[in-house]
Amino acid sequence: MAATFNTTQTYYRIRSFQIEVLGSSCVTIVGVPIEIAVLTFVLAFVGGMIPIRCSIKDNEEALRRLTGIAAGILLASAMLVVIPEGFELAMGEGELGPLVLGGAILAGFLLMLVLEGSGIGHAVHEEHHDHAEEHGHGHIHHQAAPWMLVLGLSLHSAADGLAIGSAAAGASEAVTALVAFAVVSHKVPAAFSLGVFALHERDQRKDAIRDVLLFALATPVMIMVSFYALQDVEVQTVALAMLFAAGTFLYVATVDTLPDIHNPETGRQALKHILLGAAILGAILIGADAAGLIERGY
Fold it and tell me: Where are the domains of the chain?
């Protein structure tokens, strides 16, 4: 069954930026997540430009704290929002077995793992940590080419866009907002780290700005592409896209925090930050549910 619905089925979908097409018997409403796309671009670009334009890039403890909290929010978003919503959509229409649904999550996780193992990783946070330790000891070249790390981070940023775009195409407004909140909270410290890394690795400031711009554009572009691409497809396809994106969330939330968790000096603080992030999203989710804002997407 294609994702074509009448007014009563879709009215509660994203009510901002609606395009109403009058027909002879019904109204087709398409929610365009332009506002979210613009917000993700602005926050990511500003976050990446701060270390390039300002002198606060050496506050390593603040970045570690923000990264831990953001990772907790991202982890909770995957487990409490994206995966349950994906399963609900998949089970509501047709027959998709648990192996297929779980395989979509695994595919997202493994894709990020393969990219990381191939040197096209997203782990620019670790690069930033290394730069802090190298401060005052001259420039140290890293094994991975700078463009590969920028590409990897941008690919992950595109996966974030897939999560938001698929949620906008198939879930309620509240679910889309929660997914967007998780993505944005993670993008700001990630963009900050990228700005530090690019400034350190690039010979010219304009090249560092280009890296940040590429990263900032990846999510909003993918939001729009995935949103429109999933408009006229089966509900199960939207569900699988959401579950795939959830797998990337799980990978990033884990990899971003494991180095600090394994470090005896930072392990306890990192754990507190992750739990705080998860608690923040959990509290928002409970509040939204109590207010009746969370509805089924179909």
Answer: 33-290
